[in-house]
Every structure is written in structure tokens, then in C-alpha cells.
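Comment thread on ticket #2218

A.B. wrote:
> Attaching the input chain for the structure job we discussed in standup.
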Amino acid sequence: MAKSKDGLNYKQRLFADLLFKYGNQTKAYEQAYSYDTQGRSKQIIHQSASRLAKHEKVQARIEMLRAKSGISREHILEQLSEDRDFSIEQNNPSSAVSASMGMAKVLGYLNESVEVTHNTTNQTLISSLSTEDLQDILRLAQASD
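C.D. wrote:
> Ran it. Output below, let me know if you need it in another format.
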């Protein structure tokens, strides 16, 4: 497959563009490599997406897209902080939690997947919780308090 000036082939470049657009590695990988993902487990797709997202040239493409868009990490954090403060003022804890989760994601505190083990006789492994799943779990935990 031919490579462009940035050293990426078509699918790698498409993956980087979709990752920039969606902010979700798995979704970007599934769309960029659609025919390659058929019949593959979600875990394998997630691992492939994670590995490709760390590729130096993919990272460079994403940074170039960020620079062109004029949106910086600091700008996003500032907006999320303002949204969180407003949500608290409006007594809307759900929105405040969402803004906090967004800040944590931007800062790299949340990965797209979490491994959880359970200390019972049958250990349970949850290998690919999305950010949305984590937010749902957090909401359920808060509702049960």
C-alpha cells in the first residue's frame, strides 16, 4: 500500500483522522479497517487500535490536525472546567460528573478499557469497558447511595 508524505498508508491516515474526529480508538479502527475487523473479537480490535494509536506517525498526524483546528488541550480543559462549574451552580450533578470525566480523559487518567478482577472463587475479568460504560456504572453507584 502506498504511503503519503507523512509516511502513513491510506488506512493509517484514515484511522488518525477518525481518531481525531471521534476521540475513540476502537471506533476509529473499526471504521478505517472495516473489512479487516469482521470476525475479530472486540478485545483484538481494541488491542490493534491501541497499538496503532501509539504509532509515532499516527500521533504526529493527530497533533497536526489539532494544530490546524486551533483547539488545544488547554482550551478543552478550560471549557470542561467552566461546564463543570456551571453544572454545579445549576445543581446538576450528572452534568458535573460528565465534565469531570471528560477532564480526566483529556488528562489521560481514563483509558478506553479497564481490567477488573473479582476476589471470589470465580474471578471475573472485564476487559473492555468504554468510557460510557464507566459513566453508567458511576451513575448507578451514585443513585444507590
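A.B. wrote:
> Thanks. Noting for the ticket: DSSP finds eight helices and no strands in the chain.
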